[in-house]
Amino acid sequence: LLFLSETGGKDRRSGLILTIPLCLEQTSMDELSVTLDYLLSIPSEKCKARGFTVIVDGRKSQWNVVKTVVLMLQNVVPAEVSLVCVVKPDEFWDKKVTHFCFWKEKDRLGFEVILVSANKLTRYIEPCQLTEDFGGTLTYDHMDWLNKRLVFEKFTKESTSLLDELALINNGSDKGTQQERERSIDLNFLPSVDPETVLQTGHELLSELQQRRFNGSDGGVSWSPMDDELLAQPQVMKLLDSLREQYTRYQEVCRQRSKRTQLEEIQQKVMQVVNWLEGPGSEQLRTQWGIGDSIRASQALQQKHEEIESQHSEWFAVYVELNQQIAALLNAGDEEDLVELKALQQQLSDVCYRQASQLEFRQNLLQAALEFHSVAQDLSQQLDGLLGMLCVDVAPADGASIQQTLKLLEEKLKSVDLGLQGLREKGQSLLDQISNQASWAYGKDVTIENKENVDHIQGVMEDMQLRKQRCEDMVDVRRLKMLQMVQLFKCEEDAAQAVEWLSELLDALLKTHIRLGDDAQETKVLLEKHRKFVDVAQSTYDYGRQLLQATVVLCQSLRCTSRSSGDTLPRLNRVWKQFTVTSEERVHRLETAVAFHSTAEKILQECPEQPEAFNEMDQFDEIEAVGKSLLDRLTVPVVYPDGSEQYFGSPSDMASAAEHIREKMKLVNLKKQQLRQPEATTPES
């Protein structure tokens, strides 16, 4: 039964040849019947109409088996069988046994039965249509045919089943509503076998068939016209065409399903991002509305905000990935998906950009608050430093140190002014940002929270303004006090300078104002210069007195005692008294000198003939007395109130002045003698 087959040969009527090899073993008629039914189902109806020639090879079997097989053909294929050739063995069966009248049974059997030897079979069938077993030349490999047939059967079964499944899937995808399509695809989405594998099997089978047809002689296997019908090459091609068509549709369905699945996944992820940003993300921002009341508080809020931003960054990364996926689908998507994809992209972008803007606004607000508190802290430290400087009592050593301290004070006040101006700018900028917060208040009324922030900012600025105003007031007082101290030091320095000037005038009076003049006119000029010199000294003394009086007033205003005016006034008075005494002595000497020179010049200029001259001899006595008095004064020092003494000029200077007076006194004495001589001669005559 294993080798029961259609070899592909044909009889003289072009009918197919069916070979039934029998063996010594027991033959199952049921299996033989099933095999015959299968083999007879392979040829086309056209081939069946030409009839079959059945070769029953009984050379290795019993007659009873052969007879049973022949009779069975009557029941299985009576209409298709036209001739049955029973190949008998060389040692023929008993004639009596075999003398079963097959020829008499032709009408009842429906076909002709012939008993023939293998070498005589060519009488009925051409040798080229017989295999080598029956003395023919037809090349036939039953195992090869069987393997190819098994492949064909498997391919036919799988492809037919696959076509049904694909048709069900594809037809389900063509239903009207989207919901019905998705439900149909869900139920029949995966075929029972891999379409690619089935297609590959069919192509390999078809390729084998085509090679046998066109290249059979080269491979040593001849081709017969029955190959197309036995191996059903057209059927394979038809199945492949149907499979390719359905598989192409199936791939499109899968592509649509994949696209739909991808679209649904994107939509799901988009909604996850949107729901988180509009839910927990927005709630996190709703709870963060304060700006802090110090640098540390603002930094803590910034740290908390960075944690919130870190959580948002993870979702923003998902947004970027989704946006790229949506962009890719928009570039390769169908028209029907463009609207939905663009709507998803727009919704995702709107929510993400809005949330990112809120995060950026919050970050900028906290940064502005931190800068505001930093400026406020710096300004507070500057005010503390200025206040500390103002609370320390000023005890400078001189006016220069006071000027330096005053300059430092002004610089600190200017720095405070700049700091307060910067604080106002930062505060106003922060208030402007807070006023804009209501436009994106996360769906929450932030009026109360904003009012607290605004009150805090305004409170800080007002407090700094008050502190700055208090410091300014204290600076004004300190500035006035320091200016008074500068004036005090200046007055003391100028008063001391006045004492020095007066001392210099006194020294000049004693050392350079020593001449008494050579005549009355010159002495009067010296006297006039001396009076002017005294006026300068008087002005210097009055200036010093006024400065010292001013120091007294300033000390009373500053509630302090002057460190220098205590000895400056006695010094000024002492020098002035010394100058006054010296000046009076100088005036007395000059006036005496004027009187001396005037009288002397008058005497010396009178003519001897004048008789009244002889009546005034007492003038000579007077001028002599004045001259001696003047000479005496030149040798006497100036005695000051404190008992100290001081001479005018050097001894040589005084000696020179005294010598000039003596010379003039000699001239006067000579004149006197001249006047006395006439008086003495007159009585004698």
UniProtKB/TrEMBL annotation:
<dbReference type="GO" id="GO:0032266">
    <property type="term" value="F:phosphatidylinositol-3-phosphate binding"/>
</dbReference>
<dbReference type="Pfam" id="PF24915">
    <property type="entry name" value="Spectrin_SESTD1"/>
</dbReference>
<dbReference type="InterPro" id="IPR056804">
    <property type="entry name" value="Spectrin_SESTD1"/>
</dbReference>
<dbReference type="Pfam" id="PF13716">
    <property type="entry name" value="CRAL_TRIO_2"/>
</dbReference>
<dbReference type="GO" id="GO:0043325">
    <property type="term" value="F:phosphatidylinositol-3,4-bisphosphate binding"/>
</dbReference>
<feature type="domain" description="CRAL-TRIO">
    <location>
        <begin position="1"/>
        <end position="142"/>
    </location>
</feature>
<dbReference type="GO" id="GO:0005546">
    <property type="term" value="F:phosphatidylinositol-4,5-bisphosphate binding"/>
</dbReference>
<dbReference type="GO" id="GO:0070273">
    <property type="term" value="F:phosphatidylinositol-4-phosphate binding"/>
</dbReference>
<comment type="similarity">
    <text>Belongs to the SOLO family.</text>
</comment>
<dbReference type="GO" id="GO:0010314">
    <property type="term" value="F:phosphatidylinositol-5-phosphate binding"/>
</dbReference>
<dbReference type="GO" id="GO:0080025">
    <property type="term" value="F:phosphatidylinositol-3,5-bisphosphate binding"/>
</dbReference>
<keyword id="KW-0677">Repeat</keyword>
<dbReference type="InterPro" id="IPR001251">
    <property type="entry name" value="CRAL-TRIO_dom"/>
</dbReference>
<protein>
    <submittedName>
        <fullName>SESD1 protein</fullName>
    </submittedName>
</protein>
